[in-house]
Amino acid sequence: MSVHISKMTGKLEGFQAISTNTMTNKYCSDQNAKAVANNTDNICGDCYSWSMLRTYRKNMAPALQRNSDLLSSRPLNPQEVPRINAVAFRFSAHGELINYQHMDNLMRIVNENPWCTFTLWTKRTDIVFRWLKDNDKPANFILIYSNPKKSHIMSKPPKFFDKTFNNVLKHEDVDKQNCTGQKCKDCMVCYTIGNDTTTIVEAVKKY
Predict the structure, then answer these.
(1) Which of 75, 83, 139, 153 is paired with 207 by a 20 to 30 Å CA distance?
(2) What does residue 119 show for φ and ψ, rounded to 5 degrees?
């Protein structure tokens, strides 16, 4: 079995990504259900992936599920670790970290492709902290904390993280919104090591 690499479109045009199935991720389904049922400020209630995979991106689900099963169940064999011929690469354009094994396999991909900078967005500090307790953070790896709380900008990243990603309503903190109206390939703040921008703010999109 091989890891499926997605060719991204829209805002992420020009990028490739390794993603998993949001719909079968227990963390994602629990967070989405709680946010919707209780009308909370949890951004998971506005999840673009959840909406897309239920509607016009349904055809992606089987490939993403294969990644979920492969990456979370066992260590990748050497021949299963993909060679990434790119300068920058995204993890989890869809889905969230599933478990420690998932994180470990992603880090194996990072370490086997030292010429590429990888970026992971995640809310799962528990998994990240556990992995980094026993391993060094790769030099070509950027960690972005996905702040689950809408309309509450978190400027200081958690330990080990490089940046925070925050969502606000369109009319809120307009002067701080620095991830609105451009494609990622024309910005690269999230994919470049060493830049000074540590707080990313985007207006919530409705899908």
Answers:
(1) 153
(2) -125, 135
